[in-house]
Design brief:
This protein has 216 residues and is an alpha/beta fold. Helix content is 48%, strand content 17%. It has ten helices and eight strands. Strand 5, helix 6 (108-116) and strand 6 form a beta-alpha-beta unit. The longest helix has 25 residues, at 191-215.
């Protein structure tokens, strides 16, 4: 159960650096988002290049956050942008090279801006309160997930913010196609075990959908 129109896998972690990516991808992760912050230009390039190599060896899809120019230069094929980065992005250049694009949204105005560039997925968050960083947006809640999915139709919807395995089924039932996670494993006493728990949940969810489809 991957997102439609080339969306990410049902569950995927967001990692802040190469060390975390090297640690988690071999566990069986099939989509990972690299979210570097305030890194020097040479570090950005070397990290994306190394991440692409690791993901290629493990059959994992890499999504590069923010650094679309570097992603384009290195041949990455998936980019995630916030609203500020989207405003300065050459979307036409990305699409001309076949690069898929995901965009963060937090309000109806931002959703309209995102949909205007025909993204490959839309992210909505925070669904629940998240404690990893201060957020200017209040928790969106499950009703907003359902509303966003109704608005965007076939475009994959990514839920993010305060997600846990215990909340995951409800978020999918509300309309999310994929769940992007960072705080839940990042702050866990055993991050590797938590990632495996998420992967087991995703596998069970996909199997449940498969059997449901066969029964109809």
């Amino acid at each position: 159960m991957t997102g439609r129109r080339g969306g990410p896998d049902l569950f995927y972690p967001i990692v802040p650096d190469l060390a975390w990516l090297q640690r988690l991808v071999p566990l069986g992760v099939k989509t990972v988002q690299l979210r570097l912050k305030d890194a020097a230009g040479d570090v950005v390039l070397s990290t994306i290049a190394a991440s692409l190599d690791i993901c290629a060896r493990h059959g994992c899809q890499l999504i590069v956050n923010d650094y679309w120019r570097e992603a384009l230069a290195l041949g990455a094929d998936y980019v995630h942008l916030g609203q500020e980065d989207l405003a300065g992005c050459d979307v036409a250049a990305l699409k001309a090279r076949g690069v898929r694009l995901g965009i963060s949204t937090h309000s109806t105005d931002e959703l309209a801006i995102a949909l205007a560039v025909e993204p490959d997925y839309v992210a909505l968050g925070p669904v629940y309160e998240t404690k990893l960083k201060a957020m200017p947006w209040a928790p969106q809640g499950l009703a907003r997930v359902t509303d966003w999915k109704r608005r965007i139709g076939a475009v994959p919807l990514i839920a993010i913010g305060g997600l846990t395995p215990e909340r995951a089924d409800g978020v999918v039932a509300a309309g999310a196609d994929s769940l992007a996670v960072i705080t839940d494993f990042f702050t866990h006493s055993d991050p590797d075990a938590r990632i495996r728990q998420w992967l087991a949940w995703a596998a069970h969810c996909k199997a449940r959908v498969f059997h449901s489809m066969r029964a109809t």
